Amino acid sequence: MQKILVPIAGSPNDEAVLRHVVRLVLQGNALEVHLLNVQTPFRWHVARFVPRHEREGFYREQSRDALRPCRERLDRARIPYTVHTAVGDSALCITQAAHRLRCDRILMGTARKDSLVRLVEDCVVNRVLELTTVPVEVIAGTAVSKWERYGIPAAVGTLLAIALAD
Length: 166
Known about the structure:
There is one protein chain. By secondary structure, this protein is of the alpha/beta class. The protein has one domain: 3-Layer(aba) Sandwich (Rossmann fold), CATH 3.40.50.620. Helix content is about 55%, strand content about 20%. Helix 1 (about 15-25) links the parallel strand 1 and strand 2 (about 30-40). Helix 4 (about 90-100) crosses helix 6. It is globular, with a radius of gyration of 18 Å.
């Protein structure tokens, strides 16, 4: 039985990963599915004013909300799974969980983005690929918006042209 870790961010891209997991199981693959939701911790200047038990309750509630549609989908498909939650840096928590659980691979969803957009943004998928030795399978999710497809490259091109003109 193959162990897979499926990070769930509560985004539309999670649906593409879950469709892939269901497809794998229907094809006869024996999978041990581990869902992981990672919550970003409050910044220190905010955290110092919020008691620990309230922060922990907030993180639990946010994780529950992010995982609910995924759990419902897997329950409908009668696919067993285990839920894990963490608070911290997403890429680091994902790689640590994959190592701790001895997963055979990590399935991650990502939006379809332009190469230039991926170059300028901090992407969890890229950071996981850098940090882990566990194979990562990236499942394409939603398409990029028109702003990401045309606006960002045009803005970067304009900035480069201005910088070169000086």
